[in-house]
Amino acid sequence: MQELLARLKTLDPNASLALRVIACFDELVRGGVNTQALLGAAASLSGCVAGYARESGRPMRVSPAGETLEPAPPPTGAHEVDGLQVWLEREGPEQVNDAMILERLALALAIRSGRATTDPLRRLGALLDPEGTGEQRRAAAAKLGLGPRSRYRVASLPLFATWAQHPAMLEDVVPTRFGPMHVVVLPAETTALEARPCGIGAAMRAEDLHRSFATAMVSLRLCAPPEVPVVVADDYGGLVELLAQCSLEQPLLDVEELEDVMRHPWATVTLDALLRSSSVREAGRLANVHHSTMQTRLESIRDALPFDPLDGIGRTRIGLAFLAWRLRHSSVLDLPPPDRR
Amino acid sequence: MDDGSSGRRPPFDPELRAGLAVVGGVFPPTITPDLIGFMRRSYAGPPLEMLLAGRAILTEDRVFPGAGGHELLATVFRPESATGLRPGVLFVHSGGLMFGDRFSGLDRMLEFVEDLGVVLISIEYRLAPEYPDPYPRDDVYAALEWVASRADDLGVRLDRLLIAGASAGGGLAAGAALAARDRGGPRLRGQLLDYPMLDDRGTTRSTHQFDGIGVWDRISNETGWSALLGDARGGPDVSPYAAPARATDLRDLPPAFIDVGSAEIFRDEAVAFADGLWNAGGHAELHVWPGGFHAFDIFAPHTALSRGMIQTRRAWMARLLAD
Q1: Number of domains in chain B
Q2: B212 touches chain A (CB under 8 A)
């Protein structure tokens, strides 16, 4: 992997390789892999032999090709945590990700050997965990220096997001059902990040940031670069939080009917414009088409649906169905080709 | 029928999933025609010096006549210690029919040169879409005839000549084995088909199970086959030498070794091809590696699954070719 990492860095100089190292060990821990596999990953990432020793038992060494080598005692200067030593047998100067690889390796080994159950370095995970208690989240927030009365937002990005600027901020990799996510905590006033794709969650108090995270994930999944590189939850308010709580894999009335409409190449732009305006003329201006074109499109939408999308409760139905359709068909978390980011 | 669009699919092996988190971006899962240029840059084989570092292998570039006599390059890899004629392996590289070169994915093959003492011949066949069907398969077949006709000169034992290919190269290798049978061409000792690309029709369940994830999804496959076949893709007029899944007669073929991941689109066509060989009275060894994405042994060779795949493949090669 070291060779591929180097190649990745050449192809995409802004790629956050440290985040990928974190995500790699997260996946290994979640997958419950054994000591040999953890050492193999560290060796493969670094391109040199990785070793591990504890007070008792034989030391273990694994090559970048994943082969177990003859045991040898730890070298001086091995990284030591709680009576557990890990090292990389690098000849020559230390490389930029070595410390990160050793830190994550040590932690993963501690969890594998039953010495640790959680990751003490990963407080964002505790802060954003909806399963945790309010007290746990408040404690996590306090440790992170988040004021109990201040308001913040969570932003979610895929690991492959591109950053025009990446200032220092409170950030981490958090596992989700969509895979590992790059997560950032922002002050409430910040509603933009120079990164794409990016979902920015609703502003909440620190102890409610798990809810902001949920809205950030929905916002992220509503992104569709290059047309929609960033979505801010505030744009949709309670709708995104409602959608965060829904299981959209189940069949849904109105969304099924919308499939036919969405086959038109103009569908997304047209529906968005209609929903954001109060007249067909205004919608035409938003979508950059003549109002007669907009009228024709509206008629074909009306023909395809069993209700009038612009009349009374029909506006709500089409609005919600449109968002649900976009989430169901979201491809923003599929790895995009590099020159389209 | 469940066409795979229900969203159920085998999960990736945990070590491989971790690998994807790291190397994601080197090989996008979905390759469309506008990405061919990018892929040619990012999937180019490593420099020869890097491939050979620390290995006791001699190399030599040769020119061979491809389809229509067009001059093409082959690199011959020979163990330093070799004397006399050695078993020969003709290798057809991967790259979706559109990219890659004779040095792509060669690490595993070079181990056969070192460990089994084979002479490896890796060829530069012409790529689609600039050179559509039949150029790639005709180049590969021409290379096979060239190796057989120059066996002494290349230091290859004709009674131990094997064709090997990975992914698109696996499909082309299987096609060349079919053609050699039909045309009374060189007798092959075996065909090594690593996660081969065999079927242009895109109708299997596994083809539809991995959209947008892993390495090489349905769209990428359509891009590759369209580059090769144009509008003929999926239609009635595709040659079994281009898409060996089309072959209706699988009798009298050399012993096949087929490996594939359970979490890749080629799973079903690989299994079906092995099944076809058995039913035709042939000899085939099939390994489906659980949770493996396409070409996982190239992207994450250090993992337990990859090491298993590499050792299993090597054992088969040793049975056929070792002294």
Answers
A1: 1
A2: yes
